Amino acid sequence: MKSVRCLVTGAAFAAIAAGWSGAAVAQETITVWFTKGFYKGEDDALLAVVDKFQKATGVKVDLSLYSTEDCVTKSVGAVEAGTPPDVGFCTTYDFRTTGKWAFEGKLEDVSDVIEPLKTDIMPDALVGTLLMNDKTKKKAYYAFPVQQQMMHITYWKDMLEEAGFKESDIPKGWNGYWDFWCDKVQAGLRAKGKRIYAVGHPMGVAASDTFYSFLTFANAYGAQVVDENGKIILDQPANKAAMIEAVKSYANILQRGCTPPSSVNWLDPDNNVAFHNKTIAMTHNATISIASKHLDDMNNPALTQEQRDQAKKNYFDNIRTTQFPDKPDGKPLPNLAAVKTAVVFADGKNKKRGKEFMAFMMKDENLRPFVEGSLGRWLPTTKSGLASPFWTDGKDPHRALVYKQFSAGTIPFQFVYNYKFTAVNAENVWAKAVNRVVQDKVAPELAVDEMIARIKQIAG
């Protein structure tokens, strides 16, 4: 289990210096588990919040930072054992555990903290935190909307130009867009003798990237999986037909030889790696972490000056972040957003102080530096956060695009309406359906029938 543990203390030192007894020195403690940040700025901002909270309250924060997968795995084990921390924030809670835990009564109701903040929190960011508790038979706020992510497309502008095209040549319509990259850009690069694929298309069953990307295609075709009450409606004729078209469209990228054959086995980092190695010209991703890596590199003292200069050129000149093309019907594609949730556990030993810690963290002066420390990888959930010059000053080409995209509005992923979809996502029925088509050569209609049957079995 990879982790970084920080026992951050405050008033205890002063108490010892004053000559208090051992019993008097014993300090109130809360236990907090977070996903370790991709960038130093994220962790620095969190440590600053911890330090400020300790000084304000005299409460010691026992903070542990875990890798993305370890964070949720350790949390699940602790909840099952009845020994969770007081506060947990793992960046995959939202689509794997938050709804399930709320339903089972494993989370503390934090409505009293959320209610005063509601005017500043974006309405769509609240959807994934208003959850059903099967014990109370009521919905309440059981999570804090800390930050969110949205789907983007990232491409190499210099590779596009090498293929003989300008950015203005890129079509805005759905089919024309993918035809352009697969038939024109890839052909142009292959004509130069380069074994390059136009699209890095996540298809691995074990990758969360795959279901984020696939559900974006399903969104483009208007396939509704559940309604806002969590009822499965994918078996309705119009939705089923739309899902069949989404599976066809998603599978077609590989069928036409436009993505590396290995993409059927890709894990989450693999499209990033292929992009950085320039073996693909573009990819789609649920954050702007691909571009942000070059922002991080250009300020990394461990790299040579030449490497930092190249990273700067890549970030500002060679790499572009953009949004998906318009839907097949010609209308703009609504932006799907996934809200990253922090929770206070009902079995936490000091959950009262845990709620206080999260109330403290959700203050704008604390939350904003934490979100911005991710260099644009995560987006704010608050109106005040989005109004920050970090997003609005237009100086950063990638954040400027994200701000424009975000300002157009977002909609939640449908899994927030039915907590059982945490199991559907974990099994990745979406990727399995696509792989039934591309690897097992079954008809898309059969693959979708199997998808619907499995979804009903898990979440019906």
Task: Walk me through this protein's architecture.
The protein is globular, with a radius of gyration of 23 Å. The chain has helices spanning 11-17, 22-25, 40-57, 68-81, 93-96, 98-103, 111-114, 123-127, 157-162, 174-190, 208-220, 237-255, 270-276, 289-298, 305-318, 351-361, 364-372, 383-386, 389-392, 397-407, 421-427, 429-438, 444-459; strands at 3-8, 29-35, 60-66, 87-89, 130-133, 138-141, 144-150, 152-156, 197-200, 280-285, 319-322, 335-344, 410-412. The chain has 460 residues and is an alpha/beta fold. The protein has 23 helices and 13 strands. The chain starts with a strand and ends with a helix. The chain folds into two domains: 3-142 and 338-403, Periplasmic binding protein-like II (D-Maltodextrin-Binding Protein, domain 2, 3-Layer(aba) Sandwich), CATH 3.40.190.10; 152-334 and 414-459, Periplasmic binding protein-like II (D-Maltodextrin-Binding Protein, domain 2, 3-Layer(aba) Sandwich), CATH 3.40.190.10. The strands form three sheets. Strands 1, 2, 3, 4, 7, 12 and 13 form a seven-stranded mixed sheet that branches. A four-stranded mixed sheet has the order 9-10-8-11.
